[in-house]
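Help! Submission page says 'invalid entity' but I think these are all valid:
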Amino acid sequence: EAGVAQSPRYKIIEKRQSVAFWCNPISGHATLYWYQQILGQGPKLLIQFQNNGVVDDSQLPKDRFSAERLKGVDSTLKIQPAKLEDSAVYLCASSPRGPHTDTQYFGPGTRLTVL
Amino acid sequence: AQSVTQLDSQVPVFEEAPVELRCNYSSSVSVYLFWYVQYPNQGLQLLLKYLSGSTLVESINGFEAEFNKSQTSFHLRKPSVHISDTAEYFCAVTQKTSYDKVIFGPGTSLSVIP
């Protein structure tokens, strides 16, 4: 079974530029998560989708971050414009159903550096 | 709101020695608890979780964790570590409500010394 795929693996941009990350979850998984992991900290949930609906985006900085999950499969996370403090690893995860007791399966992450 | 504390950011230990990685949480309601592990150059993966029942849970590679409600702890232990256990370990908590996000601790970096 293929795991969670993310691209790109690395991205370097200057502040005020835009960037987009892509995630393809494990086939058949209903729930998709985007996390931000700043160096030295644990992952912080940005947004959670159940199929193509948003379950939780309470920690998503909506003035600059946006995410979509069209057709309930893959997803894109966008930052526009980027700030220095957005430098982090962006993790995508998926789980089979949706309860918060489900095991989450993580992708390798995208390391973003904002200069 | 719930939170997770992992007091030890780095834990060096010699091969075949025992190890304990500490995790404490705070929550006003009952919780579910998890340990995730991130091996070098790999994504996070679930190591073990406590949902209900026996307070002692085990993983397939010899780790165990015990849920202690009175001390609000979920420490991870292994009696004899291997080089391959070198990784970052994250404790996580979510509240036993209809829905709650999973909150991760800051992580503990375990380095096994040959």
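Support: the input was valid. A stray whitespace character was the problem, and the output above is from the cleaned input. Chain B touches chain A at residues 4, 9, 32, 36, 41-46, 49, 51, 90, 92, 94, 99-107 (CB under 8 Å).
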